[in-house]
Design brief:
The chain contains one helix and no strands. The mean pLDDT is 89. The termini are far apart. The protein has 53 residues and is an all-alpha fold.
Length: 53
């Protein structure tokens, strides 16, 4: 009986690790796009202000 409990716990850990991995990949992609967009907007703004000189 103890073996089945350990197996069940291991299965839950594997599923949890897979879910965390998916969330991490999605968040990383989402955040990378947001950061890239923010940096591009900042660069455009700097360029616009520099052209005024």
């Amino acid at each position: 009986m103890r073996f089945r409990r350990s197996q069940s716990t291991l299965e839950y850990v594997i599923v949890l690790a897979a879910i965390i991995a998916v969330i991490t990949v999605v968040a990383r992609t989402y955040l990378a796009n947001k950061v890239k967009s923010a940096l591009q907007k900042a660069a455009d703004r700097i360029q616009t202000e520099a052209e005024k000189f």
